[in-house]
Amino acid sequence: MAPFFYIYIVDKNIVIYILGYISAIGTIIPLIFGILRFKYLNRKYFIILILFGIGTLTELATRVYSSIINHNNIWIFNIYQIIETILIIAFYSSVTKNKIKKNILLLIAIIFSGISIYHIFTNKSNMLNDSSFSTESVIVVLLAILTFNSILKKQIYSNILAAPLFWFNSAFLLFFFGNLFLHIFSKYLQEHALYTFFELWGIWHSSLNIIFYILISIGFWKTKISQI
Asked: Rounded to 5 degrees, what are φ and ψ at 24?
């Protein structure tokens, strides 16, 4: 049993490493698709291009920082998460034309940023800001569901699969809903089952990341067909 168990652990570690590597460098793929379709991007889709541009720079910065300065680069992810949330809220704000909804989203972004910054300065810098990550996931999931509800009510698409908004919204809904429970229990896992946390993060989170990148890339590619 020992050799089989050893092979299982080694194989699992290899899978985690491969998924993690693809997840880390994969953010550049949607960025490339966005650049290739740059002239077809309207304001709301340009926001997503900015998001992935910053995401790619963040991945690079964390690796350089970890290799040269300090192995603990969690604080960079915590700061990026605030920027990410603001940009996603800005994207959904650009989707709606209702001024009241836009003001509500602006207020949410301000409150969220203030609370997240407070947590960064009051909590340990070597821990993920899991409460903010969980809150971000809830916010994005609700916005994605409301957007799908609006799309179905208005029925403005003759072929919804040709609409970039469908792919972008699907990407956000799947990614943040899938990661919601991981973020909710991340603090407990980091304190009581750190290896399990890294396994879940390496397999579940990385797999969702890859699917997320694929859906976003499709969304950028579809912008040539539709600008709605």
From this structure: -70, -45
pLDDT score recorded for residue 35 = 95
Instruction: Please state, in angstroms and as integers, the Cα–Cα distance from residue 1 to each residue in 37, 199, 202, following that order.
Output: 53, 22, 25
Whether the CB-CB separation of 50 and 39 falls below 8 Å is answered with no
221 vs 22, 42, 162, 167, CA distance in Å? 21, 13, 10, 10
Q: Cα separation of 205 and 188, whole Å?
A: 17
Contact 200, 182 (CB under 8 A): yes
pLDDT in tens, 134-187: 899 999 999 999 999 998 888 777 788 889 999 999 999 999 998 887 777 766
pTM: 0.85
224 contacts 41 by C-beta, under 8 angstroms = no
CA 197, 83, 139, 35 torsion-angle sign: negative
All residues at 6 or more sequence positions from 168 whose CB lies less than 8 Å from its CB, including other chains? 45, 48, 91, 215, 216, 219
Tokens of 121: 């300065």
CA distances from 44 to 27, 94, 104, 134 (A): 19, 6, 18, 24
Alpha-carbon distance of 184 to 189, in angstroms, equals: 10
